UniProtKB/TrEMBL annotation:
Pfam families: APH. It comes from Chenggangzhangella methanolivorans. The lineage of its organism: Bacteria, Pseudomonadati, Pseudomonadota, Alphaproteobacteria, Hyphomicrobiales. InterPro entries: Aminoglycoside_PTrfase, Kinase-like_dom_sf. Residues 52-257 form the Aminoglycoside phosphotransferase domain. This is Phosphotransferase.
Length: 312
């Protein structure tokens, strides 16, 4: 038996109601850079003998801290909101959802640069935000602090300027807290590959997946992280905020820019910490982490940074 077979067998034994499994195959190979897919969990397609295919996530022990305690509940609530696959079964460290057939594919950054697809993705996030809070707080600023502390404890080789970028996140956190935050149920994930796309009529072409970091947060973090991933120019960012909210006011634009930088620092530190702490070979955690920190450095170095802080 291979290691994956053992992990799948153990997970299936813990998951209720799947029935007899006729076979399975890897649904997504782990890639940290550039697509950031299947790194926290093994992602497997299960073929039950008497039911439709199932997508199974089996969490890796070295990434246990990367999954919120309400991830399974969040996935189910997102499905109820009509923006995510249905949940089939859950167990500690494992989640089974309906399998999105090959007509569906994961998004690349270039896909989300299409104005209509980005607007549909933002609309899906907005439907999450309209639901009631889930009861667990995701704090991106606290996550940056925790990852920075973990990096220091591990002696991780951080690039020049990492400490200053973490300090800038603290400044952003203080400024945003002073301006006020209204919490909502959030995806907390702006990575393009966690958006699934299919061809079809507008309004039904997008599903959100991977609710590992889902929790209650400022909904503008969801918007800021997504436009940080997809948009390269100011006009595109402003248009995306307008698509989400109906208008782009300056204080919201500034908040989204800050959140985009914080998201970069958070994932940058994550990549470097996991590169040191994970024993799984061949996953380019460090490359991903340094790329995200490089992007954060460029954003935090913009002349507008002080203005974003002051005008929230």
């Amino acid at each position: 038996m291979t290691g994956l077979e053992e992990r799948v067998g153990a997970a299936v034994a813990r998951l209720p109601g799947l029935g007899e499994i006729a076979g399975f195959e890897l649904a997504a190979a782990p890639v940290a850079s550039p697509t950031h897919r299947a790194t926290v969990s093994d992602c497997v397609r299960l073929d039950p003998r008497d039911a439709s295919p199932v997508f199974l996530k089996i969490r890796h022990a070295d990434c246990a801290a990367d999954v919120s305690p309400v991830a399974a509940e969040a996935a189910a609530r997102a499905a109820e909101a009509g923006v995510a696959p249905n949940v089939v079964a859950t167990a500690e460290g494992a989640l089974a959802t309906e399998f999105l057939a090959p007509l569906w594919r994961y998004a690349r950054v270039g896909d989300l640069q299409d104005v209509e697809l980005l607007s549909e993705t933002l609309a899906a996030k907005r439907r999450l935000h309209a639901a009631s809070p889930i009861g667990w707080r995701f704090d991106p600023f606290e996550r940056v602090r925790a990852l920075a502390a973990e990096a220091a404890a591990l002696g991780a080789p951080l690039p020049d300027g990492a400490a200053e970028m973490a300090a800038a996140c603290d400044l952003a956190g203080a400024a945003i807290a002073a301006a006020g935050v209204d919490l909502a149920f959030c995806h907390n994930d702006g990575v393009a590959s966690n958006v699934m796309l299919r061809d079809g009529p507008a309004g039904d072409r997008v599903r959100l997946v991977d609710f590992d970091l889902a929790g209650d947060n400022d909904p503008w973090f969801d918007v800021g992280a997504l436009i940080n991933e997809a948009c390269r120019f100011e006009a595109e960012r402003r248009a995306a905020i307008e698509a989400y909210a109906g208008a782009c006011v300056e204080r919201i634009y500034n908040r989204c820019r800050l959140y985009g930088a914080v998201d970069d620092v958070m994932w940058g530190l994550w990549g470097i910490v996991r590169a040191v702490g994970s024993k799984r070979p061949g996953i380019e955690f460090y490359k991903y982490g340094t790329w995200r920190l490089s992007h954060a450095r460029a954003t935090l170095g913009e002349r507008g940074f002080e203005e974003w802080l002051r005008r929230l």
